[in-house]
Structure formats: C-alpha cells, structure tokens
TrEMBL record:
Protein name: Phosphoribosyl-AMP cyclohydrolase
Pathway named in the protein's UniProt entry: Amino-acid biosynthesis; L-histidine biosynthesis; L-histidine from 5-phospho-alpha-D-ribose 1-diphosphate: step 3/9; Amino-acid biosynthesis; L-histidine biosynthesis; L-histidine from 5-phospho-alpha-D-ribose 1-diphosphate: step 2/9
Residues covered by the Phosphoribosyl-AMP cyclohydrolase domain: 48-121
Binding site for Mg(2+): D95, D97, D99
Record's subunit section: Homodimer.
Cofactor note: Binds 1 zinc ion per subunit. Binds 1 Mg(2+) ion per subunit.
Catalytic activity line of the entry: 1-(5-phospho-beta-D-ribosyl)-5'-AMP + H2O = 1-(5-phospho-beta-D-ribosyl)-5-[(5-phospho-beta-D-ribosylamino)methylideneamino]imidazole-4-carboxamide; 1-(5-phospho-beta-D-ribosyl)-ATP + H2O = 1-(5-phospho-beta-D-ribosyl)-5'-AMP + diphosphate + H(+)
Taxonomic superkingdom: Bacteria
NCBIfam families for the chain: PRK00051.1 (NF000768)
Keyword flag Cell cycle: no
Compartmental location: Cytoplasm
Amino acid sequence: MADTLKDLEGAQQDTRVPLGEILAAVRFNGDGLIPAIAQQHDSGEVLMMAWMNREALEETLTTGRVCYWSRSRGKLWRKGESSGQQQHLRTASLDCDGDTLLLQVEQTGPACHTGRRSCFYIALEGNAARIVSEPLIDPDILYHRPSGGA
C-alpha cells in the first residue's frame, strides 16, 4: 500500500495513477477514518475539519456532494442534510503521507453548526481566547429548533 505513495514522491507533474490504487494506499486510522479539511475553493478560507471513511470518500468523489463520517452518530453525514448548508466538491487532494485530505469546496452558507462561516472562529491570543466572527445564521433557525433548544 505505502509503496504507491512512496513511488509518487519522485513522479513528474501530470503523472496519472488509477484512483483505485490511490484509495488502496490511503492511510485510514485504526477506526477506519481520515481527517478531511474543507477549504473554500475561491478564497482559501479554511471552513472545517471532519472525518471520512472510505465509503464517505468514495461517495464524495462519485457524487460531488461532500459526505463525511459522523463519529457521534455512527453513520454517514452528508454535509447540509439537516441545515441545508451543503458543500460541493471542486477538488480533492491527498497529502504526501496519505493520511489527510484537503477538499476544495463550494460552501453554501455557514459551514459551522454555530451558524458561522467557519468552524475556526476562536482565536487563541496570548493568555485569552477571542471570538473573531459572528454567526451568519442563528443555529436555532439553521436547524429548525425552538428558540434556545439544543
């Protein structure tokens, strides 16, 4: 498996390898998951990090709609299925070690369950943390919950 990635270290630009061979080389962790970083394709803004199993990765590559593995729910999670805030895949890249994905996406509305554009809204500065963005949509409205609901 790892030989495929090792062989690619010296590969020339535009070298092509069958997708099945690359998927077989992906280094999923002990739970069968790989971290996937979602980045807005045109601005470069990092939106979120979530997990994918092989099924979620294959579905994403096949359909173009980003699908993750929800560890809390124990099932596939198609981004936006409850909020309507979908991610559409533009490009997917595997890192050199085969253990992290970078997804260039077109994000519809907020990516974060807090209603913010990005999940990375807590800046760690010196001896304090600072909130750096406001929600675009109230999470209760986003998820059709009664006000103040969980």
